[in-house]
Amino acid sequence: MHSDKKEFLASLIPLLEKKGCYAEALYIRDDSLGVNRDNTSVDVGKQRDEGVKLRVYDGERWHEKGVSGWDEKALTKAAKVLGKVKKQKKNVKLDIREDPINADYKALGKIDPTTIPLDEKITTVKKLHEQFLGTSKKLVNARVYYSEMRETKVFVNRHRKLSQVISGCHFVLIAFVQSPDGDLRYHYKSLFDHGWERSKIPKKILNEVAKFAERVAQAEKLKPGKYTCLLTPAMSGLLAHESFGHGMEADTIFKDRAKAADYFGKRLASEKVSIADGPLMLGTHGFFFFDDEGFRATKTYMIKKGIVTHPITDAYNAARVKKPRSSNGRCESFDRKIFARMTTTYFEPGKSSKDAMLKRIKDGLILHESSGGMEDPKGWGIQIQGVIAEEVKKGKPTGKLFYEAGMTGYLPDVLKNIKAVSKEFDIPGTGRCGKGHHDWVRVAEGGPYLLIDEVVLS
Amino acid sequence: MKAAKIVKELKRLKLDAWSVLFQEQEKSTLHLTKGEAIETSMDTKRVQAEITVYKRSGTFLGDSKFILFTDDTATIKAEVKDALIIANESTKPGWPLPKKQRYGKVVTFDAKIVKAFEKGDTEKLNLKLWKAMRAATKKEKGIKLNHAELHLTRTQNTIVNSEGLKGKNEATILFVEAIMTIKKQEFHNALTVGTLKDFSPKLFIKETADSARDVLAARKWKRVHEKGILLSGIALRDFWAPDLTMTPVVAHANAQAKHRHLSRFDRGQRVTKNKGFTLMSDPFISHNPASGKFDVEGTASKKLSLVEKGVCKEFVANQRYAHYLGVPPTGALGVISLSKGKEKVKDLREQGVVEIVSFSSFVPNSLSGDFSAEIRLGYLYEKGKKIPIRGAMFTGNVFTMLDAMRLSKEGMEMERYKGPAVVRFDEGCHLAGF
Question: How far is CA A29 from CA A153, A296, A334, B22, B276, in A?
């Protein structure tokens, strides 16, 4: 698989390493198909990004060139220019694995989506839309969006020749509703798997999305305050990702931008709490076999049984912070930098049952989902916006929803206030994560249900 | 890869209609770590063509887009074949494609940046800017510049279609990001400009350092505050022209949203009882990165009054949705411009008000107008003092807030925004911290 590309890129390595530096080459091709059906039309589009990143490490820094498409002449020229980079005397040694591997990997699901004719995909989306629309008369509009990805990567250095092809079938169901005041609102559900088998969406799910949207239309604003909350896997995943994960990125730690640096080996939460990151979970949106620096997939415990353990790393920053490498060196595209980035991030499951946890709430909320969040690695402040919450009285949900609340607070307080962790576990997150507001990579997040006291909401 | 070769092949294939957006983008970036060391220097070149093919079926039209990184004839032929299948499967009521246009005048490139790319001197230019930032940092006691990025970009776009349209645009951008830390706090600042003249390393570093000091000194906000919330600086820009989405007012003044029943606006109808609210899209502000001559289809950009004196006047519309709604096509959205008010900033800053200057992130719900955003830095005006605050959640609804909005006489311009320097809200929002 991709042996021509591997061999060509391998032929560039001696050119790149002419002056004694370490070099690597990464070919990336992202193909995607989007089918969008709403009440007004069906729109279908294809996207592609393709290019090669050539990198030389001189002992102090990376020198990079990016060339779009697959242009062997331009790549040879770029390799010759980069090959003039001299090795520096001052040397921060990277942990480059020297065990030779020549391997090809693929994750295409049970039914490779490229084996399904385009008209069948469009018909499936149209039928789903019809069914979805039929679930409620209160929908102002309903949208079914199918997004198919096929990510191809070829990594080559002096020790390794790797390739991977990962496909993804992503369905997003969005129900638009109107509040009694005339405000437009929406509720959505996102479903992901590697293969076309994901297209089998039970009517029950369509019905749940529409009925929940009807309730969102009636939702009120939440009174600011501190609440006992049951976080769903979507919300616990967001907390793990935004509030904790970003602060465990090795570059952030090296730049003295992360409070976590003061906590390695120290307790931050109870024994019930473990937070991990890794691309090994097949069927999640953050899955891959090797990262963009050719490092094979690993699982990293960022918190294990309440103790802060390892950061997630790329090669350069692992060397800088003197911590082990992990498979988190990732870039958005051939013309963006590789950073230490999360993959699939989650709280590990616990022993409690979701229902028992719910019963413990006398007067509180279920936090169902949110529209997103923002990191604050230095201050460990929590910033999660667009939260949809449901009232709980005497251990039972009342059905009353609150719309667009904001969750804030101090992360160590929130982690200390985790009272129970469920055995039920899910990774529903299917989004993209930015470093700040740029450098987007696909990720997933999730976990168990969490029962937390004194959650600050406004 | 040559645009002319692609066009020749598309003409040869005798399609019902087609359009090509040919893009050449060069980038030169410098990533600095811990203020001193260069972690990565990178030069990249992206050459790509975004092709749209159309298939007519009576009064219906199907369209399909794809991207090419090669002008190889066999590849074009194969991609067009696939695109025609897609176009056939996605027909909808037809619309006219843009014809030859006259484009407005706006300067979107800096000759010095262009020259640096042509001479291969962009790394030198980035280093020069970096050295000036470092020199400025040395004057800031107790503060470290722990992260910086400099990105120079030159983009040349050419649009051609089967109806005789042809447009060219060249744009340059300098993006600078810095994070300065002081003891246990930090401040993140970023700036995107179209010309080197609009970036002063000294001023940028001073502003970032001052804000970092204020974040360190800031009180954690621990109560609910409703009346007298002011926005200025980056917070004001993000409120009207957020980075990751559209402000709800612009999202609703959009022909596509209207056609899809996802807009609460009607042309000629009142959006707010506030007659001082006029919001425009201005694509002709030179060197503002949001300016541009045409949209992705080549339709000429126009200056638009989306809301005039509180009444919805025009919708942003591409060719398709303009045709569906029977409104004129408008080209791309430009700089969000708010008309200024009549009050002085000092009069808006009454005692007891809170002024927010920076959010951690501002991503409103474009559909409902609701938002909740954490305050990275703000100030409380109390007893004649300006006291830094942080940590509260700013929550509200953009549409509700318009009614009691007050705008300053003094103005400012930033990337994507031009308008009053300070805006005050007294309704529809609150700050809460615990």
Answer: 7, 19, 9, 19, 50
